[in-house]
Amino acid sequence: MNFANLAAQLNAGTILPEGIVIITLLAVLVGDLIVGRSSARWTPYLAIAGLGTAILALFSQWNNPDPIAFFGGFNGDPLSVVFRAIIALSAIVTILMSVRYVEQSGTSLAEFLMILLTATLGGMFLSGADELVMIFVSLETLSISSYLLTGYMKLDPRSNEAALKYLLIGAASSAVFLYGVSLLYGLSGGETRLSAIAAGIANGGTGVSIGLVIALVFAIAGISFKISAVPFHQWTPDVYEGSPTPVVAFLSVGSKTAGFALAIRLLVTAFPLVSEQWHFVFTALAILSMVLGNVVALAQTSLKRMLAYSSIGQAGFVTIGLIANTDAGYASMVFYLLVYLFMNLGAFSALILFSLRTGTDRISEYAGLYQKDPLLTLGLTVCLLSLGGIPPFAGFFGKLYLFWAGWQAGLYGLVLLGLVTSVISIYYYIRVVKMMVVKEPQEMSEAVKNYPAISWNLPGLRPLQVSLILTVVVTSLAGILSNPLFSLANDSIERTPMLQSALVQTETVASIPAPELAD
Question: pTM of the full predicted structure?
């Protein structure tokens, strides 16, 4: 093979956005080594600039005629472009909200940024990985970086405990996932590309064997851990409560988005023979996640822990789009994850700001906050109402699109359960809003009574203010001006050949009468 053919097969330009993130990571590392702790004044903005450039590079590849790279190991199709952009955006907002938090803890900001960029890189590669080895390496890059971020506050016993729990459960889930994909490798006759695996299993003549079903169950277990679906959610509340809050914000969006990207690509491409089985399993996961996540959130006294259970319930809502297995279903997943990025990170920005000023995240301590900090009260109110699905905010249209796609696909029971659990979720979101706004001056909490004078001149507070305002503005406007996002989500599905061929195949199988299938 000559050099020209090798370069064409590699098609390295497809991973230009990831290359930009790698260069940014190295620049932050070298800058910190040369300058030392004083690099904290400019490294966050360098990281944000690098991630912003990567997002621009992503959308320059929207109409890429040849998205397959690295001998079929990576697919830069429009679906992966959108998911990679969501992960990069979540990293940008996380950096904005983490500057003051990390500096106040006395730890190195540059090291934090390097690990965060590595996790972002793992998530971006996972969103486009189309081959088993690349999937696993990307998954572990994201996972190991997440463990390091979780235990980043080394002097905080809660952070150490959260990291240890996350590491132990995460290592077990990775082992289970690896065993599942190794079964796929064997059943397909030694193939590692997802499309070749499906063809190898179909040509092998084994049909729906017990080995294929076990591989499916193990693969779903690994995916469910990443998206925090019940019953693979055990790590979520404790890790969210003990981890640094900016890390929790990234895990709730970036890691979850990468998990859903993996779910779509792996299940649709490699498991077409057992599509009924994985639909059944994910239906059970969606039901359990929506019920447990939203019901248990009612009893929480910590806002951080409440948002942890809320994210479990949100994973159940997004799973409805995956189960629908239609153009509208997948597009509704993309749209919801886009708006979830801003409304959830906005809530965490407000949580970080309040905890920095008061040292607590107890819901009862928010009583009367509107009298001392109207901006924080407004920002948190908008984001919580959007998470609850209250119009005219973005979350309402996201849930409407998901439920409509599910209803069109005949998932009537699942949609009705989603509506009921959404109503339940509104109660615990409104409880926080009521605590901030409705309380009389004499009912003000001790934390709010001792609330410090509002000043944005302290190092790192200005980026946090920007992240709060940015997320609130987008959450508000994305609901009113949602058409561009709807179009983006729909185009990403219609322009992805993998999904279109899978949907056509599903419709063809569904149209064959039962006697012919039996023959």
Answer: 0.93
